[in-house]
Amino acid sequence: MKPVYKKSIVPLIAIIGILSAGFIALKLNSIINETTTIPKRPNLLLITLDNLRPDHLSIYGYQRDTSPAISGLAGFVFDNAFTVSTNSGPSHATMLTGLYPPQHGLIDNGQSINSRVPTLAVTLRDRGYDTAGFVGYYALSEESGLDKGFQTFELHPIASHDHDEKSLDDDLAGFVATKRWLGKWIGESKKSRNPFFIWMHVQNIHESYDPAPPYNSLFQEFPVFQKLKGKDFDLRCANDIAKAWRSGIFPDHLKDEVIALYDGEIRLVDDQLKKIFETLKNAEIYDDTLIVVLSDHGEILFEKYEHEFFKRGPGHSSRYTDSAIRIPLVIKPAGAPQSDHVLRPASLVSTIDLMPTILDMMNIEPVPWMSGKSLVPLMDASEPSDPDQKIFIHDYPYETEFLGVRTSDWKLVIKTDEGVENKLLIDIKNDPEENRNVWAENFQKGEELKSLLISWKKKNKSTNLTAARELSEKMRQALQDGGYIRK
Length: 487
Known about the structure:
Elements: E1 43-49, H1 68-71, E2 75-77, E3 81-82, H2 88-97, H3 101-104, H4 120-125, E4 130-135, E5 152-155, H5 173-186, E6 196-202, E7 227-228, E8 231-232, H6 238-246, H7 254-282, E9 289-294, H8 322-325, E10 326-327, E11 329-332, E12 342-343, E13 349-350, H9 354-361, E14 391-395, E15 401-406, E16 410-417, E17 420-427, H10 443-459, H11 473-481
Parallel strand pairs: 1-6, 1-9, 2-12, 3-13, 4-5, 4-6
Antiparallel strand pairs: 2-11, 3-10, 7-8, 9-11, 14-15, 15-16, 16-17
Helix pairs in contact: 5-7
Protein backbone atom coordinates (compact mmCIF):
# COMPACT_ATOMS: atom_id res chain seq x y z
CA MET A 1 0.00 0.00 0.00
CA LYS A 2 1.51 3.30 -1.06
CA PRO A 3 0.97 6.58 0.78
CA VAL A 4 -0.67 9.55 -0.89
CA TYR A 5 0.86 12.98 -1.13
CA LYS A 6 -1.67 15.64 -2.14
CA LYS A 7 -0.90 19.25 -2.83
CA SER A 8 -2.00 22.18 -4.91
CA ILE A 9 0.22 23.74 -7.55
CA VAL A 10 1.35 27.20 -6.52
CA PRO A 11 2.61 29.90 -8.89
CA LEU A 12 6.30 30.52 -9.03
CA ILE A 13 7.35 33.82 -7.55
CA ALA A 14 10.30 36.04 -8.24
CA ILE A 15 12.96 35.87 -5.60
CA ILE A 16 14.88 39.05 -4.87
CA GLY A 17 17.99 39.77 -2.78
CA ILE A 18 20.61 37.17 -2.03
CA LEU A 19 18.80 34.36 -3.80
CA SER A 20 20.62 33.97 -7.09
CA ALA A 21 19.08 33.55 -10.49
CA GLY A 22 20.19 29.96 -10.37
CA PHE A 23 17.63 29.03 -7.74
CA ILE A 24 15.07 26.93 -9.53
CA ALA A 25 11.42 26.28 -8.96
CA LEU A 26 10.33 22.82 -8.00
CA LYS A 27 8.44 20.60 -10.39
CA LEU A 28 5.36 19.55 -8.47
CA ASN A 29 4.28 15.96 -8.50
CA SER A 30 1.48 13.89 -7.06
CA ILE A 31 1.07 10.21 -6.34
CA ILE A 32 -2.56 9.18 -6.16
CA ASN A 33 -3.83 6.30 -4.05
CA GLU A 34 -7.43 5.84 -3.06
CA THR A 35 -6.95 4.27 0.37
CA THR A 36 -4.23 6.02 2.38
CA THR A 37 -3.72 9.70 3.15
CA ILE A 38 -1.24 11.42 5.41
CA PRO A 39 -2.32 13.62 8.32
CA LYS A 40 -2.97 17.27 7.54
CA ARG A 41 -0.14 18.36 9.81
CA PRO A 42 2.15 15.41 10.52
CA ASN A 43 4.94 15.57 13.07
CA LEU A 44 8.49 15.48 11.75
CA LEU A 45 11.46 13.72 13.34
CA LEU A 46 14.65 14.41 11.37
CA ILE A 47 17.65 12.37 12.50
CA THR A 48 21.10 13.11 11.06
CA LEU A 49 23.73 10.56 12.02
CA ASP A 50 27.17 12.05 11.55
CA ASN A 51 29.81 10.01 9.73
CA LEU A 52 27.61 7.00 8.92
CA ARG A 53 28.24 4.71 5.96
CA PRO A 54 25.16 2.96 4.56
CA ASP A 55 27.01 -0.31 4.01
CA HIS A 56 27.36 -0.66 7.81
CA LEU A 57 23.61 -0.68 8.38
CA SER A 58 21.59 -3.88 8.53
CA ILE A 59 18.93 -2.46 6.22
CA TYR A 60 21.62 -1.99 3.55
CA GLY A 61 22.71 -5.63 3.83
CA TYR A 62 25.47 -5.44 6.44
CA GLN A 63 26.18 -8.79 8.05
CA ARG A 64 26.30 -7.43 11.61
CA ASP A 65 23.10 -6.51 13.39
CA THR A 66 24.11 -2.89 13.86
CA SER A 67 20.77 -1.19 13.30
CA PRO A 68 17.58 -3.17 14.02
CA ALA A 69 15.63 -0.06 15.04
CA ILE A 70 16.41 1.77 11.80
CA SER A 71 15.55 -1.39 9.86
CA GLY A 72 12.20 -1.46 11.64
CA LEU A 73 11.22 1.87 10.14
CA ALA A 74 10.62 0.15 6.79
CA GLY A 75 9.13 2.70 4.37
CA PHE A 76 11.60 3.88 1.72
CA VAL A 77 15.31 3.11 1.54
CA PHE A 78 17.32 5.04 -1.05
CA ASP A 79 20.17 2.88 -2.28
CA ASN A 80 22.03 5.65 -4.10
CA ALA A 81 21.87 8.72 -1.87
CA PHE A 82 24.80 11.15 -1.78
CA THR A 83 25.82 14.19 0.21
CA VAL A 84 26.62 17.58 -1.28
CA SER A 85 29.53 18.14 1.13
CA THR A 86 31.75 16.00 3.36
CA ASN A 87 32.02 18.74 5.98
CA SER A 88 29.29 18.68 8.63
CA GLY A 89 28.45 22.39 8.60
CA PRO A 90 27.90 22.84 4.85
CA SER A 91 26.24 19.43 4.57
CA HIS A 92 23.65 20.11 7.28
CA ALA A 93 23.05 23.63 6.01
CA THR A 94 22.16 22.17 2.61
CA MET A 95 19.78 19.66 4.21
CA LEU A 96 18.00 22.39 6.16
CA THR A 97 17.76 24.97 3.34
CA GLY A 98 17.51 23.05 0.07
CA LEU A 99 20.41 25.20 -1.22
CA TYR A 100 23.97 24.42 -2.27
CA PRO A 101 26.78 25.72 -0.03
CA PRO A 102 27.60 28.69 -2.30
CA GLN A 103 23.94 29.70 -2.10
CA HIS A 104 23.36 29.42 1.65
CA GLY A 105 26.81 30.80 2.46
CA LEU A 106 28.10 28.15 4.88
CA ILE A 107 30.84 26.75 2.69
CA ASP A 108 33.17 25.49 5.43
CA ASN A 109 32.93 24.46 9.06
CA GLY A 110 33.12 27.49 11.31
CA GLN A 111 31.04 29.75 9.09
CA SER A 112 27.33 30.54 9.26
CA ILE A 113 24.50 30.59 6.76
CA ASN A 114 23.48 33.93 5.33
CA SER A 115 21.09 35.55 7.80
CA ARG A 116 18.43 36.02 5.11
CA VAL A 117 18.32 32.38 4.03
CA PRO A 118 15.16 30.67 5.32
CA THR A 119 15.48 27.23 6.92
CA LEU A 120 13.21 24.23 7.35
CA ALA A 121 12.71 25.16 11.01
CA VAL A 122 11.64 28.70 10.10
CA THR A 123 9.24 27.37 7.48
CA LEU A 124 7.59 24.96 9.93
CA ARG A 125 7.61 27.34 12.89
CA ASP A 126 5.81 29.92 10.78
CA ARG A 127 3.17 27.30 10.08
CA GLY A 128 2.51 26.70 13.74
CA TYR A 129 4.90 23.85 14.51
CA ASP A 130 6.68 23.41 17.83
CA THR A 131 10.36 23.22 16.87
CA ALA A 132 13.27 21.73 18.80
CA GLY A 133 16.86 21.02 17.75
CA PHE A 134 19.48 18.96 19.59
CA VAL A 135 22.98 18.91 18.08
CA GLY A 136 26.19 17.17 19.08
CA TYR A 137 28.84 19.27 17.35
CA TYR A 138 29.86 22.88 17.87
CA ALA A 139 30.06 23.67 14.13
CA LEU A 140 26.25 23.19 14.08
CA SER A 141 25.61 25.36 17.13
CA GLU A 142 24.15 28.88 17.21
CA GLU A 143 27.23 30.29 15.50
CA SER A 144 26.33 28.35 12.35
CA GLY A 145 22.92 30.04 12.08
CA LEU A 146 21.25 26.63 11.91
CA ASP A 147 19.40 27.40 15.15
CA LYS A 148 17.11 29.74 13.19
CA GLY A 149 13.47 28.82 13.66
CA PHE A 150 14.02 26.49 16.61
CA GLN A 151 12.14 27.52 19.74
CA THR A 152 14.32 25.08 21.70
CA PHE A 153 17.92 24.57 20.55
CA GLU A 154 20.55 22.73 22.60
CA LEU A 155 24.17 21.67 22.07
CA HIS A 156 25.23 18.39 23.68
CA PRO A 157 28.75 17.75 22.38
CA ILE A 158 30.45 14.35 22.25
CA ALA A 159 34.16 14.21 23.07
CA SER A 160 35.81 12.94 19.88
CA HIS A 161 39.44 12.76 20.98
CA ASP A 162 39.26 12.33 24.75
CA HIS A 163 39.67 8.63 25.41
CA ASP A 164 39.71 8.48 29.17
CA GLU A 165 37.40 5.94 30.72
CA LYS A 166 33.82 7.15 30.42
CA SER A 167 30.39 5.96 31.36
CA LEU A 168 27.58 5.35 28.93
CA ASP A 169 25.88 8.46 30.31
CA ASP A 170 28.63 10.58 28.75
CA ASP A 171 27.46 9.52 25.29
CA LEU A 172 23.73 9.88 25.83
CA ALA A 173 23.16 13.54 26.73
CA GLY A 174 21.63 14.43 23.37
CA PHE A 175 19.26 11.46 23.43
CA VAL A 176 18.21 12.24 27.00
CA ALA A 177 17.51 15.87 26.13
CA THR A 178 15.43 14.84 23.11
CA LYS A 179 13.36 12.36 25.12
CA ARG A 180 12.87 14.95 27.86
CA TRP A 181 11.50 17.51 25.39
CA LEU A 182 9.34 14.90 23.69
CA GLY A 183 7.93 13.73 27.02
CA LYS A 184 6.98 17.29 27.91
CA TRP A 185 5.28 17.73 24.52
CA ILE A 186 3.37 14.46 24.93
CA GLY A 187 2.19 15.61 28.36
CA GLU A 188 0.43 18.65 26.93
CA SER A 189 -3.25 18.62 26.09
CA LYS A 190 -3.90 16.99 22.71
CA LYS A 191 -6.33 19.76 21.81
CA SER A 192 -3.91 22.58 22.55
CA ARG A 193 -0.55 21.25 21.38
CA ASN A 194 0.90 21.94 17.94
CA PRO A 195 2.56 19.32 15.76
CA PHE A 196 6.32 19.09 16.32
CA PHE A 197 9.50 19.24 14.31
CA ILE A 198 12.48 17.70 16.09
CA TRP A 199 15.96 17.72 14.57
CA MET A 200 18.36 15.29 16.24
CA HIS A 201 21.96 15.56 15.13
CA VAL A 202 23.88 12.57 16.53
CA GLN A 203 27.66 12.95 16.73
CA ASN A 204 28.49 9.63 18.40
CA ILE A 205 29.49 7.72 15.25
CA HIS A 206 31.98 10.39 14.22
CA GLU A 207 35.65 9.59 14.59
CA SER A 208 37.27 8.75 16.92
CA TYR A 209 35.57 5.38 17.35
CA ASP A 210 35.23 5.21 21.08
CA PRO A 211 31.88 3.80 22.24
CA ALA A 212 31.38 3.38 25.95
CA PRO A 213 31.03 -0.12 27.44
CA PRO A 214 29.40 -2.48 26.63
CA TYR A 215 29.41 -1.27 23.02
CA ASN A 216 33.21 -1.14 22.75
CA SER A 217 33.31 -4.95 22.90
CA LEU A 218 29.89 -5.77 21.45
CA PHE A 219 31.14 -7.16 18.15
CA GLN A 220 34.72 -8.03 19.06
CA GLU A 221 36.74 -8.09 22.26
CA PHE A 222 38.32 -4.67 22.68
CA PRO A 223 42.14 -4.76 22.94
CA VAL A 224 44.10 -1.93 24.53
CA PHE A 225 47.30 -1.03 22.71
CA GLN A 226 49.67 1.48 24.22
CA LYS A 227 52.61 1.15 21.83
CA LEU A 228 53.03 0.63 18.11
CA LYS A 229 56.53 0.41 16.68
CA GLY A 230 57.75 1.90 19.95
CA LYS A 231 55.41 4.89 19.80
CA ASP A 232 52.37 5.70 21.93
CA PHE A 233 49.26 4.41 20.24
CA ASP A 234 45.59 4.26 21.17
CA LEU A 235 43.25 2.24 18.96
CA ARG A 236 40.39 4.53 19.97
CA CYS A 237 42.12 7.61 18.57
CA ALA A 238 41.42 8.45 14.93
CA ASN A 239 44.56 10.60 14.76
CA ASP A 240 46.77 7.71 15.92
CA ILE A 241 45.11 5.35 13.45
CA ALA A 242 45.46 7.77 10.53
CA LYS A 243 49.13 8.50 11.26
CA ALA A 244 49.96 4.80 11.51
CA TRP A 245 47.95 3.94 8.41
CA ARG A 246 49.49 6.68 6.29
CA SER A 247 53.01 5.82 7.42
CA GLY A 248 52.52 2.15 6.59
CA ILE A 249 52.98 0.75 10.10
CA PHE A 250 49.36 -0.04 10.92
CA PRO A 251 48.97 -3.83 11.26
CA ASP A 252 46.29 -5.38 9.06
CA HIS A 253 44.92 -7.43 11.95
CA LEU A 254 43.94 -4.26 13.82
CA LYS A 255 41.57 -3.16 11.06
CA ASP A 256 38.94 -5.58 12.32
CA GLU A 257 39.15 -4.11 15.81
CA VAL A 258 38.72 -0.57 14.50
CA ILE A 259 35.72 -1.56 12.37
CA ALA A 260 34.19 -3.38 15.35
CA LEU A 261 34.44 -0.14 17.36
CA TYR A 262 32.82 1.82 14.51
CA ASP A 263 30.01 -0.73 14.38
CA GLY A 264 29.65 -0.53 18.16
CA GLU A 265 29.05 3.20 17.88
CA ILE A 266 26.31 2.55 15.34
CA ARG A 267 24.56 -0.01 17.57
CA LEU A 268 24.78 2.34 20.58
CA VAL A 269 22.98 5.00 18.54
CA ASP A 270 20.44 2.55 17.17
CA ASP A 271 19.53 1.30 20.65
CA GLN A 272 18.84 4.88 21.72
CA LEU A 273 16.77 5.57 18.62
CA LYS A 274 14.71 2.50 19.45
CA LYS A 275 13.72 4.11 22.76
CA ILE A 276 12.62 7.27 20.98
CA PHE A 277 10.58 5.31 18.43
CA GLU A 278 8.96 3.37 21.29
CA THR A 279 8.09 6.65 23.01
CA LEU A 280 6.27 7.75 19.86
CA LYS A 281 4.43 4.42 19.66
CA ASN A 282 3.44 4.43 23.33
CA ALA A 283 2.02 7.93 22.91
CA GLU A 284 0.16 6.78 19.79
CA ILE A 285 1.81 9.40 17.60
CA TYR A 286 4.24 7.15 15.69
CA ASP A 287 1.86 6.75 12.74
CA ASP A 288 1.35 10.51 12.61
CA THR A 289 5.09 11.20 12.48
CA LEU A 290 7.25 11.46 9.38
CA ILE A 291 10.65 10.03 10.33
CA VAL A 292 13.73 10.70 8.19
CA VAL A 293 17.12 9.15 8.96
CA LEU A 294 20.24 10.06 6.99
CA SER A 295 23.89 10.99 7.34
CA ASP A 296 25.78 14.15 6.50
CA HIS A 297 28.61 12.15 4.94
CA GLY A 298 30.20 8.72 4.96
CA GLU A 299 33.63 7.60 6.12
CA ILE A 300 36.82 6.12 4.73
CA LEU A 301 37.83 3.12 6.81
CA PHE A 302 40.73 1.30 5.19
CA GLU A 303 40.04 1.72 1.49
CA LYS A 304 43.09 2.37 -0.66
CA TYR A 305 42.93 4.59 -3.74
CA GLU A 306 45.86 3.99 -6.04
CA HIS A 307 45.57 7.35 -7.83
CA GLU A 308 46.51 9.19 -4.58
CA PHE A 309 44.44 12.21 -5.56
CA PHE A 310 43.15 12.47 -1.99
CA LYS A 311 44.72 12.24 1.43
CA ARG A 312 44.57 8.63 2.55
CA GLY A 313 42.00 7.56 5.16
CA PRO A 314 40.79 6.65 7.67
CA GLY A 315 38.46 9.61 8.03
CA HIS A 316 36.50 11.47 5.37
CA SER A 317 39.30 13.57 3.94
CA SER A 318 39.40 11.41 0.77
CA ARG A 319 36.83 13.79 -0.56
CA TYR A 320 34.44 12.52 -3.14
CA THR A 321 35.26 8.86 -3.07
CA ASP A 322 31.94 7.07 -2.75
CA SER A 323 32.88 5.87 0.73
CA ALA A 324 32.86 9.52 1.80
CA ILE A 325 29.89 10.85 -0.16
CA ARG A 326 27.44 7.95 -0.23
CA ILE A 327 24.99 8.15 2.66
CA PRO A 328 22.01 6.23 4.03
CA LEU A 329 18.57 7.76 3.51
CA VAL A 330 15.61 6.03 5.15
CA ILE A 331 12.14 7.59 5.19
CA LYS A 332 9.09 6.40 7.12
CA PRO A 333 6.06 8.37 5.90
CA ALA A 334 3.36 9.63 8.21
CA GLY A 335 -0.05 8.05 7.79
CA ALA A 336 1.28 4.80 6.38
CA PRO A 337 0.33 1.67 8.34
CA GLN A 338 3.13 -0.27 10.07
CA SER A 339 4.54 -2.65 7.49
CA ASP A 340 7.60 -4.76 6.83
CA HIS A 341 7.46 -3.81 3.16
CA VAL A 342 10.35 -1.68 1.96
CA LEU A 343 10.58 0.17 -1.33
CA ARG A 344 14.10 0.88 -2.58
CA PRO A 345 14.30 3.66 -5.18
CA ALA A 346 17.45 3.18 -7.24
CA SER A 347 17.90 6.66 -8.72
CA LEU A 348 20.82 8.85 -7.67
CA VAL A 349 19.54 11.36 -5.12
CA SER A 350 21.17 14.11 -3.12
CA THR A 351 20.88 15.85 0.23
CA ILE A 352 19.94 18.95 -1.78
CA ASP A 353 16.58 17.20 -2.26
CA LEU A 354 15.86 16.65 1.43
CA MET A 355 13.97 19.83 2.32
CA PRO A 356 11.71 19.87 -0.77
CA THR A 357 10.94 16.19 -0.18
CA ILE A 358 10.01 16.77 3.46
CA LEU A 359 7.77 19.72 2.60
CA ASP A 360 6.12 17.69 -0.14
CA MET A 361 5.42 14.81 2.25
CA MET A 362 4.02 17.20 4.85
CA ASN A 363 1.43 18.72 2.50
CA ILE A 364 3.27 22.06 2.48
CA GLU A 365 3.62 23.98 -0.75
CA PRO A 366 7.16 23.89 -2.14
CA VAL A 367 9.46 26.87 -1.70
CA PRO A 368 10.33 28.10 -5.19
CA TRP A 369 13.93 29.16 -4.59
CA MET A 370 15.25 25.77 -3.48
CA SER A 371 17.74 24.08 -5.80
CA GLY A 372 16.63 20.58 -4.87
CA LYS A 373 13.53 18.74 -5.99
CA SER A 374 11.08 16.48 -4.23
CA LEU A 375 11.86 12.77 -4.27
CA VAL A 376 8.20 11.85 -3.84
CA PRO A 377 7.81 10.79 -7.50
CA LEU A 378 10.64 8.27 -6.98
CA MET A 379 8.67 6.69 -4.15
CA ASP A 380 6.15 5.40 -6.65
CA ALA A 381 7.26 1.87 -7.40
CA SER A 382 6.01 2.21 -10.97
CA GLU A 383 8.23 5.23 -11.62
CA PRO A 384 11.47 4.21 -13.43
CA SER A 385 14.79 5.50 -12.16
CA ASP A 386 16.27 8.46 -14.01
CA PRO A 387 19.33 7.28 -15.99
CA ASP A 388 20.44 10.89 -16.56
CA GLN A 389 20.41 11.92 -12.90
CA LYS A 390 23.48 13.87 -11.80
CA ILE A 391 24.75 14.63 -8.31
CA PHE A 392 26.75 17.81 -7.71
CA ILE A 393 29.18 18.08 -4.83
CA HIS A 394 31.05 21.02 -3.34
CA ASP A 395 33.57 21.46 -0.51
CA TYR A 396 35.91 24.25 0.50
CA PRO A 397 38.10 22.89 3.33
CA TYR A 398 41.36 24.61 4.24
CA GLU A 399 40.80 27.18 1.47
CA THR A 400 40.94 24.40 -1.15
CA GLU A 401 37.93 24.06 -3.42
CA PHE A 402 36.56 20.68 -4.50
CA LEU A 403 33.88 20.58 -7.19
CA GLY A 404 32.42 17.30 -8.35
CA VAL A 405 29.73 15.72 -10.46
CA ARG A 406 28.69 12.08 -10.30
CA THR A 407 26.53 10.19 -12.74
CA SER A 408 25.62 6.51 -12.72
CA ASP A 409 28.79 5.70 -14.71
CA TRP A 410 31.25 8.56 -14.18
CA LYS A 411 32.62 10.90 -11.57
CA LEU A 412 34.71 14.03 -12.09
CA VAL A 413 36.33 15.92 -9.22
CA ILE A 414 38.21 19.19 -9.75
CA LYS A 415 40.46 20.35 -6.92
CA THR A 416 41.68 23.96 -6.97
CA ASP A 417 44.37 24.96 -4.49
CA GLU A 418 46.07 28.36 -4.76
CA GLY A 419 44.98 28.63 -8.37
CA VAL A 420 46.34 25.22 -9.35
CA GLU A 421 43.71 22.88 -10.80
CA ASN A 422 43.88 19.10 -10.62
CA LYS A 423 41.31 16.76 -12.14
CA LEU A 424 40.24 13.25 -11.21
CA LEU A 425 38.03 11.26 -13.59
CA ILE A 426 36.70 7.91 -12.42
CA ASP A 427 35.05 5.33 -14.67
CA ILE A 428 32.70 4.00 -12.00
CA LYS A 429 31.16 1.36 -14.24
CA ASN A 430 34.49 -0.34 -14.92
CA ASP A 431 36.37 0.76 -11.80
CA PRO A 432 33.93 0.68 -8.86
CA GLU A 433 36.84 0.70 -6.40
CA GLU A 434 37.84 4.11 -7.82
CA ASN A 435 41.52 3.31 -8.17
CA ARG A 436 42.39 4.75 -11.58
CA ASN A 437 42.37 8.35 -12.77
CA VAL A 438 41.37 7.97 -16.44
CA TRP A 439 41.34 11.65 -17.41
CA ALA A 440 44.13 11.22 -19.97
CA GLU A 441 42.52 8.34 -21.88
CA ASN A 442 38.98 9.72 -21.61
CA PHE A 443 39.69 13.38 -22.27
CA GLN A 444 36.47 13.98 -24.23
CA LYS A 445 34.26 12.59 -21.44
CA GLY A 446 36.28 14.57 -18.89
CA GLU A 447 35.83 17.83 -20.80
CA GLU A 448 32.12 17.14 -21.17
CA LEU A 449 31.73 16.74 -17.40
CA LYS A 450 34.00 19.72 -16.73
CA SER A 451 31.78 21.94 -18.89
CA LEU A 452 28.81 20.68 -16.91
CA LEU A 453 30.55 21.62 -13.66
CA ILE A 454 31.52 25.07 -14.92
CA SER A 455 27.91 25.73 -15.90
CA TRP A 456 26.72 24.51 -12.51
CA LYS A 457 29.17 26.78 -10.70
CA LYS A 458 28.09 29.84 -12.70
CA LYS A 459 24.47 29.05 -11.96
CA ASN A 460 25.17 28.70 -8.26
CA LYS A 461 27.54 31.60 -7.67
CA SER A 462 28.84 32.40 -4.24
CA THR A 463 29.51 35.86 -2.94
CA ASN A 464 31.80 34.82 -0.12
CA LEU A 465 34.19 32.15 -1.39
CA THR A 466 37.08 34.60 -1.00
CA ALA A 467 35.87 36.07 2.27
CA ALA A 468 38.15 35.48 5.22
CA ARG A 469 36.73 33.34 7.99
CA GLU A 470 36.49 35.00 11.36
CA LEU A 471 36.29 32.16 13.87
CA SER A 472 35.50 32.69 17.51
CA GLU A 473 38.06 31.13 19.82
CA LYS A 474 35.44 28.63 20.98
CA MET A 475 34.68 27.61 17.40
CA ARG A 476 38.37 27.38 16.53
CA GLN A 477 39.03 25.09 19.50
CA ALA A 478 36.02 22.91 18.64
CA LEU A 479 37.20 22.51 15.04
CA GLN A 480 40.71 21.66 16.22
CA ASP A 481 39.36 19.10 18.67
CA GLY A 482 37.29 17.57 15.88
CA GLY A 483 40.30 17.38 13.56
CA TYR A 484 38.84 19.84 11.04
CA ILE A 485 41.54 22.52 11.20
CA ARG A 486 45.23 22.31 11.88
CA LYS A 487 46.75 23.74 15.02
